Amino acid sequence: MPSASLVSSTTIDLGLAKGRSTSTKIVQTADLVHPEGSITSPATRATLNFQYASLRNINHCPTGMYITPSVESTLVWDAVLFVHKGYYQDSVLKFTVTFPNDYPERPPTVRFLTDIFHPLVDPRTGGYSLAPRFRPWRPKEHQIHHILHFMKSTFKEPTLDKLHEEDVLNKEAFNLATLDNSIHVAGSYRDNRTSFATLAKQSAELSQSPSALYDTSGSKKNHSLRFIPLKSNEVDQVLGALSVHTEDSK
């Protein structure tokens, strides 16, 4: 993977536990309007504020995942997932979570901006299926941290092995792997695990390419989390800063 630094664009910090925001103007305007133009209810804003702040709790935000409200609306959250193990090892995946204006009565929608060969990801739109875990959606029970943990689990073999055809958005990916290469499981997510592993690895490699990582095409220009390339001496500076920060926090 090329040397890179993850940086956040100017955005909203809901951080209600400390009662601060990086941009009062954004909170007063973008926070009130849904991306589709409808007005967001106070109950929805309060729920999102609480659930975003709760991600600071231990184990609420999955390891390897970074998420922040977008610069355009607090109803759209920008995120990056780093996958460290399994078929998708070393993937760097950008995605967005968009909340309806009556959340939590209806579930959010998830869309991957990074191309990824995955049974639950629509290869045309990047849309992600929450159906295996959140059908039906229970507004009094399900929260954003449940969604994030489920998403991370779907890049691991145990969850992939339990998918059902009616829940997937990429039938080709679903039909390319099997629990046992000696047994054909008709209609389940799987036919040839070796082919699936190869394509998943290719997806991981492509997610690290300069065009995907640094968004040279500009297709992800509004995403609040972006990467910048680093030179060798800059890498040393970043590592040194991290080391100092770690010592100071002890």
Largest beta-sheet details: 5 strands, antiparallel
What is the spatial order of strands in the main beta sheet?
Answer: 2-3-4-5-6
The backbone outline, from C-alpha atoms, is globular
The helix content, as a percent range, equals 25-40%
Counted beta strands:
7
How many helical elements?
A: 9
How large, in whole angstroms, is the Cα Rg?
Answer: 19 Å
Would you tell me the structural class of the helices and strands? alpha+beta
Write the layout of secondary structure elements.
Blueprint: E1 4-8, H1 24-29, H2 42-54, E2 65-69, E3 76-82, E4 92-98, E5 109-112, E6 127-128, H3 131-134, H4 144-153, H5 157-160, H6 171-174, H7 193-207, H8 210-213, E7 225-229, H9 232-248
Antiparallel strand pairs: 1-7, 2-3, 3-4, 4-5, 5-6
Description:
This protein is an alpha+beta fold. It is 31% helix and 14% strand. It has a five-stranded antiparallel beta sheet, with no helix packed on it. It has a two-stranded antiparallel ribbon with strand order 1-7. The radius of gyration is 19 Å and the shape is globular. Residues 8-33, 178-189 and 244-250 have low confidence and may be disordered. It holds the Pfam family UQ_con. This is UBC-like protein. Keywords: Ubl conjugation pathway.
Summarize the structure.
This protein is an alpha+beta fold and 250 residues long. It is built from nine helices and seven strands. β2 (65-69) and β3 (76-82) form a beta hairpin.
List keywords for this structure.
250 residues, alpha+beta, 7 strands, 14% strand, globular, UBC-like protein, Ub_conjugating_enzyme
